Amino acid sequence: GKQGANMRYIRDVCQCKVNVQTAGPDKNATRRVDLVGTALNVGEAASQVLAHAFQFQTSVEAIVLIPEKYTAAIQSGGPEGLRQISEMSGVNIQVENHIVVNPLSGEQERVLTILGEPARCGNGLGIALGAAMRAAPTIASPAGGLLGVSQDGTPAVT
Asked: Which residues contact 88 (CB under 8 A, 6 or more apart)?
């Protein structure tokens, strides 16, 4: 919407590369939004995307796809590590077991399900990616796909 003003804002202020998948014939279908940048910037950009997509909702379930190489570091603290991230961010985060393939890059990704207030979901993602970067500092800047779905199943339209 608004000739891409929201995406420009995210690119400029959050200093992230943003790539929004083309909507196709169904303008209401969930679309993939790839965010590339530092952990903190990706988290802030995700907060902005979710806050915009779910302006009038108090709780969402965000489906976040992150490169497989980050999940071991995020899970390294086990349930306690995820619980700490959840407590710090105010959201519930779960790492799913199944692997999906990024349709653009072919890279293997894992699903993080983040449940909470839209802006806090991005904060939780930033904290999780920051933990991954501290645990595995040789990995390049994180990239992740972001697909949002509301509590009632309404897809994100960004």
From this structure: 124, 127
